[in-house]
Write a structure and sequence with these properties.
Elements (H helix, E strand, L loop, with lengths): L3 E2 L5 H6 L3 E7 L4 H16 L4 E6 L4 H6 L7 E6 L2 E7 L4 H12 L3 H14 L5
Parallel strand pairs: 1-3, 2-3
Antiparallel strand pairs: 2-4, 4-5
GO molecular function, one term: protein-disulfide reductase activity
Keywords: Disulfide bond, Electron transport, Redox-active center, Transport
Pfam families: Thioredoxin (PF00085)
Length: 126
C-alpha cells in the first residue's frame, strides 16, 4: 500500500470506513515534511492493512484549519473513526513504528467508554 492524498471531500469517509488511518499533514515548502515523507512512505509499504493518508495543507487549507493544524508536519492516527493520536514534528522510523504499535494495541471498547463518560459529564448545550 502506498500513501493516498486526502481532500476535504474524502477525508471523513476515509477515516470512518477504515480500521486504522494515519494522516500526515504536510506542505511542499516544509523541510521537515520532505524529510518525513520517505519514512512515512516506507511504513505504508510495511503495513498494508493501514491507510496512510496525506493532506497537503496548502491545497486543503480549510481541512487543515478544521483539523486545527498549527505546525507541520503533523501526524494524526484514527482508529475506528476516533482520533487517538496527534503530534506535530517529523518522526524517525522507530518512533513511527511505536505509534503504529500503540494504535494497534488500543482497547477501543475502553476508549469508547471513556468518550461516552466524558460526553455524559459535559454540561448540556443551550
Amino acid at each position: 500500500m502506498t500513501t493516498r492524498n486526502l481532500t476535504a471531500s474524502d477525508f471523513e469517509s476515509t477515516i470512518t470506513s477504515n480500521d486504522i488511518v494515519l494522516v500526515d499533514f504536510w506542505a511542499s515548502w516544509c523541510g521537515p515534511c520532505r524529510m518525513f515523507a520517505p519514512v512515512y512512505e516506507a511504513s505504508s509499504e510495511e503495513h498494508p492493512d493501514i491507510v496512510f493518508g496525506k493532506v497537503d495543507t496548502e491545497a486543503e487549507q480549510a481541512l487543515a484549519s478544521a483539523a486545527r493544524i498549527t505546525s507541520i508536519p503533523t501526524l494524526m492516527a484514527f482508529r475506528d473513526g476516533i482520533l487517538v493520536f496527534s503530534q506535530p514534528g517529523a518522526l524517525p522510523a522507530a518512533a513511527l513504528e511505536q505509534v503504529i504499535a500503540g494504535v494497534r494495541g488500543l482497547d477501543m471498547d475502553d476508549i469508547r467508554s471513556q468518550i461516552a463518560g466524558q460526553q455524559q459529564g459535559a454540561p448540556a448545550a443551550r
